Amino acid sequence: MTATENSAEWRYAAGKRENFQVQQFRHTASGIEGLDRVLNGGLIDGASYIIQGRPGAGKTILSNQVAFSRAAAGGNVLYVTLLSESHERLFQALSTLDFFDPQKLGQEIIYVSVFQTLRDEGLGAVVKLLRNETKRHNATLLVFDGLLNARDRADTDLDVKTFVAEVQDQAAFVGCTVLFLTSTRLEDNSPEHTMVDGVIDLSVELIGVRSVRQLQVRKSRGSAAFGGLHQYEISQAGVTVYPRLESTVACSGMIDENIENRRLSTGCPSLDDLIQGGVPQGSITLLAGPTGSGKTTFGLHFLSQGSEEEPALHFGFFETPARLLMKATSLGIPLQKDIPDVFEIVWNPLAENLLDKLAYQLLGWVAARKVRRLFIDGLGGFERAATHPSRLVEFFATLANQLRGLGVTTVMTWELREIPGSYMTTPSAELSAIIDNLILLRHLETDHTIQPTVAIQKMRDSTFDKSAHYLEFTEKGLIVGGRISGRAQPISLLDQPRGL
Amino acid sequence: MALIVVADDEFLLTEMLSAYLEDAGYEVLTAANGQVAFRLVKERRPKLLITDFMMPLMTGLDLARTVRADREIADLPILLVTGAQGTIARRHAELFQHILDKPYNIQQLLAIVAELIGVP
Questions:
Q1: Contact between chains at B11 and A115 (C-beta distance less than 8 A)
Q2: What is the distance in angstroms between the CA of the first residue and the CA of the last residue of chain B?
Q3: CA distance readout (Å), A236 to A66, A83, A230
Q4: Domain boundaries, chain B
Q5: Per residue in A33-64, pLDDT tens?
Q6: CA-CA distance, A55 to B103, in Å (whole number)?
Q7: Inter-residue contact A117 to A125 (CB < 8 Å)
């Protein structure tokens, strides 16, 4: 069946389009992996989407990234503008981005402006032009930048609805996917909104002092997209979407399969003695304590036990890799840093991090290196990255499950502020459910001397030495000493800022 | 007054170029696509055609070919102004009197126009 000028055929095609959709949903990857995950499969062939967002949100970069990905895969793209920056300026701006390939311009991707047609002849003429150009170019993707302008030119809502419907239908008829870009946030009940198959909302919010980019799929006909807000960033790589971990990462059944019934040595024999030889494989241990209590050193011991069978990873926010290595050297703790794939340090300075990005980075390293010993220094680094702290419990639960499923034994640090009389030993009550083991590093004051101590507060499903012990910092690292007798009092360090 | 036809789908560019050309003393007609440009060239027989490459309905390259294939207007001087298609255009350099890359310096363009059809 060939497309003709006869509008009656298009009305017939409009009716048919519903059938097309029900029978088969063929997806094409958008070229933005995180977006495809959020959409749960990519863009549906022949479907129409609205990409809405204020200027600067990233619509142009996103749609061009999709266009170039389509072109690289051998498809043709028709990119239609109304009244916007000149195509030259656009190319100049895009030329700084990795996905831009100037060879594709005018070949696989053609850019045309239809402003004059709209101004002089109206919406109907634009529809016809698009039909002809899509056919002439054999386009499988049509980007229409300027839905708002089309709206202005329309005399009534019906005109807009007709415009969208006609463009949508003729594109669907030839299997061409459409992206309508608009700068207004269309209401959910607007005529455009009701016509299209999907609505993707890009926004830039001010949260505190941070500028946070968030993507939301407000409508998704034909596939169960993951709703809610997902963070994205714009960089030289273009748009990168980080789907919200706890919503898009499935809780797979393999969680319990990888757990072996054995212990991993902490690297500190005197500590192993307190906990039946080490931490249980696959468990998550929280190491809580104030600054200077030995958390980082503990991590070095734990990771020093890394090997080819048990690759080790230090995922931290505080100490630089150089500082860590220096510390290990000065304590005589061997880290096998020269043996490839056995030991790695991944450092994210405590800047404005994206929570999900951190998780994917961590899981990526863990999966790629088959990490078995993981030291996270510390939980606070994730916490500080969260723009919506209420997410953290579910986020950590998902992260923990993923790590378990990957066969990792994890030790995480948590910085405590010592308040007289009360200890906040975990970030929240719900979080303690995720923590299998809890080791407390506390400072006691005896005779006006600050004495580090260690105590096991919790070891899931196993017995342990319940008493607090002295903790010695020696030239060879940490050594757990004898039990503490009755009199010593927990130290009170009032108003000490956390993190120093 | 010497007539120039300017073909470019980008409205702002044709407006700006027309303004400069008119200030310089030429008469200008604009076309938003290759098909309209060809019609104008046939009907009005301008002294010069300035055309973009990437346009709807008919590209600047196809426009030039069509003009050259029509004996009545085959001698029309054509100035191609292009951003991304410079390389492709230069493979068919024989179709154009001059190929100018975007972004261009307007004074440079006016100098080329003067060279091709004289100053009004």
A1: yes
A2: 7
A3: 15, 26, 20
A4: 3-117
A5: 999 999 998 999 999 999 999 999 999 999 99
A6: 24
A7: yes
Cβ of residue B12 closer than 8 Å to a chain A Cβ: yes
Query: Check: CATH 3.40.50.2300 for B3-117?
Result: yes
Cβ separation A113–B10 shorter than 8 A? yes
Enumerate the residues of chain B whose CB falls inside 8 A of the CB of residue A111. 54
Q: What ipTM does this complex have?
A: 0.91
User: pTM for the whole thing?
Assistant: 0.87
- Lookup: tokens for A122: 């109206």
Per CB-CB distance under 8 Å, the chain B contacts of A105 are 54, 83-85
pLDDT tens per residue, range A307-352: 999 999 999 999 999 999 999 999 889 887 777 788 999 999 999 9
Closest C-alpha to A490, from A422, A433, A413: A422
Q: Which domains does chain A have, with CATH numbers?
A: 7-243 (3.40.50.300), 253-490 (3.40.50.300)
* Residues in Cβ contact with A163 at an 8 Å cutoff, skipping those fewer than 6 apart: A123, A126, A127, A150, A154
Rounded to an integer, what is the distance from CA B66 to the centroid of its chain? 14
Cα–Cα distance measured from residue A326 to residue A204, given in angstroms and rounded to the nearest whole number: 41
Determine, for residues A87 and B88 on separate chains, whether the beta-carbon distance falls below 8 Å.
Answer: no
DSSP H helical ranges for A190-279: 191-195, 245-248, 269-272
Q: Residue A69's pLDDT is what?
A: 97
